[in-house]
Design brief:
Elements: H1 13-24, H2 27-39, H3 43-71, H4 75-82, H5 87-117, H6 127-132, H7 136-153, H8 155-183, H9 189-196, H10 205-218, H11 225-230, H12 239-267, H13 275-289, H14 293-327, H15 331-351, H16 375-412, H17 423-444
Length: 449
Amino acid sequence: MKEIVGRGKWASKAGFVLAAAGSAVGLGNLWKFPYMAGENGGAAFVFVYLLLLGLIGMTVMLAELTVGRHTQLDALGAYKKLSAKWAWVGGMGVLCAFLIMAFYTVVGGWAIKYFFGSFAGAANIDFGAFITAPMEPLIYTLVFCVLTWVIVFYGIGGGIEKASKIMMPLLFIFIIIIAVRSCTLPGAGAGLDYYLNPDFSKINGEVILAAMGQVFFSLSLGMGCMITYGSYLDRDSSLTQSAWMIPALDTTIAFLAGLAIFPAVFAFGMQPDGGPGLMFGILPQVFDKIPAGTFFAAIFFLLVIFAALTSAISLLEVVTAYFVDEKSVKRSVASVIGIMGIFILAIPCSLSMGALANVHVIPEIAAMNIPAMGFFDSFDFLTSKVMLPLGGLLLCIFVGWVWGTDKAIDEITEGGGKSFPLGGIWSILVKYIAPVAILMVFLSGFGVI
């Protein structure tokens, strides 16, 4: 393989936006957004989600991209350059990306298994027996790790950008194909009603918090991905444009996922079951019952693989950039170190479904409604409930009060050369609104509010 010299740059604005949107578009978009919408008032939840997306999601997105482009460094290096005392926050982001990848690659491996299994009938795969097996899931996890590594190895322009330019358009095409087929099934109306019929009476504090959490976690914020991707931007790139285009693409995919999944599930009298159970347990049965089901199953699970890969490459890039920038390691070596460490940690995550099911990393904490958890669930809990919101909260405090929004706005406008009429409002959002909102999500995760 050809050695990549230097940090690299995005070759085009479109390539960056597609890659960054791909980072945000992940497995959660394919089940969590539509499931949460259905459980929390349908279109009413979508309305709240979009409102919070504009107020909180785009605010934090712009802050991360600004820090990245200004410093031209990895997550840890970016904080360290602006304030050495805050370097640990960037380090936490790198660690968070590493831990997420440990269990994310396992689920990515499941998607590969189901893609190949779909040609013989995905419904014939016993999901429970497969994930509890000791070796087969690990083999597919390794395949997923290798695919991710190959893309990151070739760098920003030659690997991540090129792959994103292929996978993201295909992802859109595939999800539209599945959505159209799903919505035209007999009985699909019940699923559309479940997903889209607004019930504003369901909007309460819990629903608002749920929407806020989904906005935050869906956009890959708080883990250093957007700081890292932003660091490869040219100085003349429009940060404000990117800060709304990325969430818009992410939300479009999430919304289409609901149209692809719920009409089909309800058309066959099944109930949504959230999480992997819906994606790997129920949907294969649905595809098994429709004409050309093998084709649509293959398309769907290829879609799942693409969604998983576009997120995984951004997470591995966070780890790789750390070794390149902070340890002066060549990209080829840095990417190998990163993926090997991730796979080693993925082993107990996979085995926690079976052989290590009784090994608890986090003990039960009844007072905080935290059950005992194995490796897979522990890493998920620590990242999504603790490290991500904490990272986002600290980012807002850092940009708002340590580095300062005046300096951030100067970077956004390139020294006043570009217009940013909402700068004053953005400053208030970063300093006051976003930190309070994120803190509420953080506390709600522990049942405090």
